[in-house]
Amino acid sequence: MRVKRRNNNNEEENIHRWLISYSDFLTLLFTFFVALYALSNIDFTKAQEMTSSLRKVFKVIDEPISFEEDRNKAIIEDLRKLLNDISGITIKSDARGVVIILPDSLLFDSGSAYLKPESSDALMRISEKLKEIPGKVAIEGHTDNVPLSSTSIYKSNWELSAARASSVLHFLLQRGLAPDRFLIAGYGEYRPVADNDTPEGRTKNRRVELIILR
Predict the structure, then answer these.
(1) Taking 70 as the threshold, does the pLDDT of residue 74 lie above it?
(2) 3-class DSSP state for residue 84?
(3) Which of 46, 89, 130, 206 is least surrounded by Cβ atoms within 10 Å, i.e. has the fewest?
């Protein structure tokens, strides 16, 4: 009789353990569905307001962004002072970093990738400033959509734009800048900043951009 009672007690204890485990499982499952429901009904406006509040409280979150913006503003101000007497150059900031836009009329003759002698002054000033600024620099060549003449040594505007970017690169390297800081690209007519249907638009599209990358 004693042995039988022990077996009954063990069976009853095992049943209780199983019920507890099952109960825990149901609780977790219920919590999971409550979380899914909450996420499906989230108020994105309130979430953004909360994020903004947290940024104000924990100012350290915005410090890297603020530092980058302050750095870019300082670089732009210095470059504008440095190049203010050279017409046609635009300096701005965008998602890529600080952008120096050089018109092709300052650098090259039509259809050519050989730097004009008069481009040296601007490029020398830029090269001296780049020596003070650490980090990578991208050089991008751009053209309008007018096809090259049949006598051109370049097959298309794509090759011309790449050759122009390369010419600017070699000038900067000759001024003592490290080669591993640079990357170049030629985009031809495929990244216009203005309408190619007007002479003014085509003039804006023919450019070389130097980007001091973020």
Answers:
(1) yes
(2) coil
(3) 46
Condensed to tens digits (0 to 9), the pLDDT of residues 110-154 reads: 999 999 999 999 999 999 999 999 999 999 999 999 999 989 999
Dihedral, 82, 166, 140, 122 alpha carbons, nearest 10: 10
Structure tokens at 132: 């003070």
Is domain 63-213 classified as CATH 3.30.1330.60? yes
- pLDDT at 96 > cutoff 90: yes
Is 184 within 8 Å of 166 (Cβ atoms)? yes
**Rounded distance, CA 142 to CA 206, Å?**
5
Of all residues in the chain, the percent with pLDDT exceeding 70 is 72
Ordered by start, the domain boundaries in the chain are 2-61, 63-213
Q: What is the residue-wise DSSP string for 22-83? A: HHHHHHHHHHHHHHHHHHHT--HHHHHHHHHHHHHHSGGGGHHHHHHHHHHHHHHHHHHHHH
Q: What residues have CB less than 8 Å from 143, skipping those under 6 apart?
A: 104, 157, 160, 161, 188, 189, 205, 206
Mean pLDDT of the 29-44 span: 62
